[in-house]
Amino acid sequence: MNERDVQIREVGLRDGLQMVRTILTSAQKLEWCARMVDAGVTDIEVTSFVPPKVVPQFADAVEVATGALAIDGLHAAALVPNLKGAQRAFDVGLNKVHYVLSASNEHNLKNVRRSTAESVEDFERIAAARDELNREVMLGAGVATAFGCTIAGKVDERTVLGLVETLIDAGAQEITIADTVGYANPAQVRALMRQVMALAGPVPIACHFHDTRGLGLANVMAALDAGVRAFDGSLGGLGGCPFAPNATGNINTEDTVFMLEAQGLRTGIDINRLLAIRETIAAWLPGEPLTGAIARAGLPATFVDREAVVA
Ligand code: COA
Ligand code: ZN
User: Fold this and answer.
1) What's the Cα-to-Cα distance from 60 to each of 71, 81, 146, 173, 294, rounded to whole Å?
2) Which GO terms describe its biological process (predicted)?
3) Residue 71 Cα to ligand 2 middle (Å)
4) Above pLDDT 70, what percent of the chain?
């Protein structure tokens, strides 16, 4: 495998699909995963362990996680919103679990029906359950609405930094800072992420941006300035928010890879392969809007694809 400067993690199967009306089959989801690995995307959030009645798309979480574990070279992770979800993910045998809570108490109440403080306590129980396992499971924690909230408005930096410290103390082995609603701007990202990086020390930090207001890639640049080297993206920018009409989803994986590679930052990802997978997914999800400048305009003729996989 190529040396990587930046790690791109695919969240389209989770963050993207949770907003999509069409329910994909487990086989389709697993084909998506396998082809992403072939394209060089080895870190994928493959599903979410939430109650099927909350998100019917993830009723097959066990099947997808089990299938993903059988894909060579894939580091499969799943999102969990509570202890029960974490236990389900541990039981399936996943080696990576992503917990999420919101810096905005109001958003947390709406998303997981408990206060942020209660979610912190839930995380402590999850970390204890992880410690009881007789295998290594990497437990990551995400801080959602870290740059602002559609319900509560401004989110104080100190709230985010306090949560980062608390989650690391409680056993988080990786922290993701998320702009859940697409409120962040580059100056804000640079300022917050510098502080997060200083606070986290050796604990890996990732950023999760939404391109709701067109600043997604600018925010990636700002986070890079602050030293962040891992980003979530979703193929075709899949996703959105049912409470925000015309909102887009996560930053687009293929455009993000292009931006990084064009500047000489290696991702290990073959963009043309991503574009081929995107076409398949577009056909599976009729009527679902996808975003992406590279899919529309093509790669520049001057672009040297150093990651192209030689078949
Ligand atoms: N997976 C499957 N079932 C679960 C579950 C999970 N992670 N968590 C709870 N349940 C079940 C409980 O066993 C219980 O079942 P029962 O009615 O048969 O006894 C039922 O769901 C209610 O449990 P409770 O603990 O009261 O949950 P809740 O109704 O307060 O909902 C969450 C809490 C966290 C499960 C729910 O709000 C949720 O899934 N939120 C996530 C939403 C999301 O996906 N957001 C986007 C990503 S951040
Ligand atoms: Zn998101």
Assistant:
1) 17, 16, 30, 27, 32
2) ketone body biosynthetic process; L-leucine catabolic process
3) 25
4) 96
> Which pTM was predicted?
0.97
Q: Are 3 and 37 in contact (CB under 8 A)?
A: no
Q: Hey, which of 18, 47, 82, 102 would you mutate to test ligand 1's pocket, going by the most ligand atoms within 8 Å of its Cβ?
A: 82
Of 58, 93, 91, 60, give the one whose Cα is nearest residue 76: 93
Task: Judge whether 20 and 240 are in contact, CB under 8 Å.
Answer: no
Q: Is the pLDDT of residue 247 over 80?
A: no
CA of 50 to the centre of ligand 1 (A): 6
Domains of the chain: 7-310 (3.20.20.70)
Distance CA 86, CA 68 (A): 17
Mind listing the pLDDT tens digit for each residue in 28-49?
999 999 999 999 999 999 999 9
pLDDT band at residue 225 under the 50/70/90 scheme:
very high
